[in-house]
Design brief:
The protein contains 7 helices and 10 strands. The chain is α/β, with parallel strands linked by helices and 215 residues long. A hairpin with a 5-residue loop joins strand 2 (14-17) and strand 3.
């Protein structure tokens, strides 16, 4: 199996499958190549499943009558020409842009609408889930909302919690799962047994929520 190997000062192995099927493996600087190969072999089934899933996933279209999801709800797009504006009305998302036949304009307008809501929503979810970590002596992480296409969240050692803008498509249960996942990295900066044991304690149904995210 072909894959891109990226070495860094991390302590664990991680594999990512990008929307185009490209596979990237991130590994510690000095880890022997045979361990990397063994890791990829162990994950081969999962990697191939993700590649199939990416290939079968329909591309989001932004035309009148198409559908998009917002916080887990399926909304029908109603497009019109005019000054940029986005508003939800029940099960419809009304999007006004100068040229409604330009899918990029429609997409940009909806993403801008999401961004305006994402920061206060994500911040509130972090605050709701953080007290246990605060009691453990951790500093409150600084939120950054990014339009990430290859991952849903990350936690940096400099104290930033990065969350994908595209989480605005999913229900709060899924957003909380991603937030909890990143907060647990305050205790364990890897995905080893201790990390998963902590996830089990803090969010016993996290695997079900993860399945909703992975579709």
């Amino acid at each position: 199996m072909e894959y891109e190997l990226v070495r860094s000062r991390r302590r664990s192995l991680e594999v990512r499958v990008f929307p185009d099927g490209h596979v990237q493996v991130r590994a510690p600087q000095r880890l022997a190549l045979r361990h990397v190969r063994a890791f990829v072999d162990e994950r081969r089934g999962w990697i191939e499943k993700q590649q199939r899933h990416m290939a079968e996933r329909p591309r989001q279209r932004w035309r009148h009558g198409d559908h998009c999801t917002h916080l887990g709800d399926t909304l029908s797009l109603e497009l019109a020409a005019g000054r940029r504006r986005v508003a939800r009305h029940h099960n419809h998302l009304r999007v006004t842009v100068p040229d409604p036949d330009d899918e990029r304009q429609v997409s940009d307008a909806v993403h801008e609408w999401w961004r305006a809501q994402a920061r206060p929503l994500f911040q509130a979810r972090i605050e709701a889930l953080f007290p246990w970590f605060a009691a453990r002596g951790h500093d409150f992480p600084v939120l950054r909302v990014k339009k990430m296409r290859t991952r849903w969240g990350s936690l940096s050692q400099r104290g930033y919690i990065n969350l994908s803008l595209l989480l605005m498509q999913y229900p709060l249960a899924v957003i909380d799962y991603v937030v909890m996942h990143e907060l647990c990295h305050l205790e364990h900066m890897n995905h080893g047994p201790d990390f998963h044991a902590l996830m089990d304690r803090r969010m016993p149904d996290w695997r079900r929520r993860k399945m909703l995210l992975e579709g």
